[in-house]
Amino acid sequence: MLEDKPIERNDLDTKRSASLSVWFIVIPLYLIFCAIMKMSFNLHLHLFDLLDEFYKSFNNGLFGKIVAPALMLGIPAIAIIITMISILEMYYDRSSRELRIRLKNKPLNLLILLLGILVLGLFVVYWFTRV
After folding, report:
1. How far apart are CA 39 and CA 55, in angstroms?
2. What's the pTM?
3. pLDDT per residue as tens digits for the range 56-115
4. Is 6 among the domain residues?
5. How many distinct structural domains can be found in the chain?
6. What's the angle, vertex CA 73, arms to CA 124 and CA 52, rounded to 5?
């Protein structure tokens, strides 16, 4: 019996998902960079303080307690999911009754995946140490 062919996905190719995932990672990396610059070098530029002022204005309400953490954890998680969908190839081999999963060797997508995991890990560590 012949093996099943992998399902072709033209709707989400690796280049498009990489460019989309980069934007989902650049925003949290920018926030991390701003926090490091503010804490390490005591820089109080208006550019770095915008996020802090925005967060403090909503800190007591629903935004500060639920929505902001969900966004900061959700944005890198979305980038990881989009990248994984584009580089994973799965198909079911009926003759041997096996689900075969292959990881495409796309260095840019793998780098984005690792950056997304790093950013998500940094935010998780931050939220656990903050409480």
Report:
1. 16
2. 0.70
3. 666 667 666 777 777 788 889 998 998 888 888 888 888 999 988 888 888 888 898 999
4. no
5. 1
6. 90
